[in-house]
Amino acid sequence: MRTISAAEHIQQAIAGGEYAPGYKLNESDIASELGISRNTLRESFAALAERGLVTRVPNRGVFISSLTAADGQEVYTVRSVVEPAALMWGEKLDVDELDRIVSEAEQALHADQPKVIADRNQKFHQSIMNSAGSEMMNEKFGDILALMRLMFLKASCTIPEFHSEYVPVNRSIVTALQDGDRFIATELLRNSLLDTRSKIIQLLPEEAVYGAQ
After folding, report:
1. Under a CB-based contact definition with an 8 Å cutoff, are residues 127 and 145 in contact?
2. First-to-final CA distance of the chain
3. d(Cα 150, Cα 14) in Å, to the nearest integer?
4. What is the C-alpha to C-alpha distance for residues 129 and 156, in angstroms, rounded to an integer?
5. What pTM does this model have?
6. How do residues 36-82 score in pLDDT, each as one tens digit?
């Protein structure tokens, strides 16, 4: 497995919620799991560190990044500009796919499955970004999704049902799109992102905290 493949594997694991913020990564175990040398893994860690997904703490090791309120402010400021643009002008918008994702989230809401709700929320926003039809943008947004997952894991410790309130919001966005009104859908999306920015920065710590494995 090449360095970039190993980095992508770890990035996808972070986006999938497999690692908690502040978790210490064991080089030996991960290198063995991925079938790569520890030198190659360290190169992957360096690439992930540049993307803000892991942090090397001197004399302690490599940790999954513990995000702060300032990180939340930055991520959601970017999202509040980029995602609405993709929704408004994306040439590959798939409303049927968005509808299916929200329907699955609604079913999960009734079944009290918060992890599924969180997963479908991620997919909802990824689908919106896919509508832009840009591989470069999707690649960059993959990092943002991973950062989002870390923020949500932290927020969910305080508010377990954190994602539940976004199910009806996402439904209203889909309904506007089905009515052919991208402008309203875009306004709903942007307002939701700005509202979440206000909430997330209150739930995240001012300083990063790193624990032991």
Report:
1. no
2. 25
3. 7
4. 24
5. 0.81
6. 888 899 899 998 898 888 999 988 899 988 889 999 999 999 999 99
